[in-house]
Design brief:
Blueprint: H1 4-26, E1 32-36, E2 43-47, E3 51-53, E4 56-61, H2 68-75, E5 78-83, E6 86-95, H3 100-104, H4 109-118, E7 123-129
Antiparallel strand pairs: 1-2, 1-5, 3-4, 4-7, 5-6, 6-7
Pfam families: F420H2_quin_red
InterPro entries: F420H2_quin_Rdtase, Split_barrel_FMN-bd
Organism: Nocardia pulmonis
Length: 132
């Protein structure tokens, strides 16, 4: 029998995959994360929220290692990130030792509220951007 966390994960990811993400990917100012599919080798684009601080971009994954983009990062941590309409390359790092709830307080309020409300396994991710 599925527990609450499994049901919540299934409901939220189904909504994101079929409705939320297709709409958000089309918005010109939406931050996008491009990973390489761990099985297909194809680019996978996911709308994300977070904040650039210096030469790094910080975000919190609401489902931790169950998130598809986190699984892709574990297989290949080279990523691309679209910020304010401009693409950057970088290296993603998973930071399980970071306090994800404290990190959310440093990130954009609306996205952080959604991640706190629907997330079950929070995981901090830092993307170190390549020099231009």
């Amino acid at each position: 029998m599925a527990n609450r966390s499994d049901i919540q994960h299934r409901v939220v990811t189904t909504f994101q995959r079929h409705l939320g993400n297709p709409i958000l990917r089309r918005l010109p100012d939406q931050t996008l994360l491009e990973t390489t599919g761990r099985k297909s080798g194809e680019p996978r684009i996911t709308p994300i929220g977070g904040r650039r601080i210096g030469d790094s971009f910080w975000l919190v994954s609401e489902f931790g290692e169950r998130s598809q983009y986190v699984r892709n990062i574990k297989a290949d941590n080279r990523v691309r990130l679209r910020l304010r309409g401009r693409w950057y390359t970088g290296t993603a790092r998973l930071l399980p030792e970071d306090d994800a709830l404290a990190r959310l307080k440093q990130l954009p309020r609306y996205n952080s509220a959604v991640v706190r409300a629907f997330g079950t396994d929070l995981l901090t991710v830092r993307i170190d951007l390549d020099p231009r």
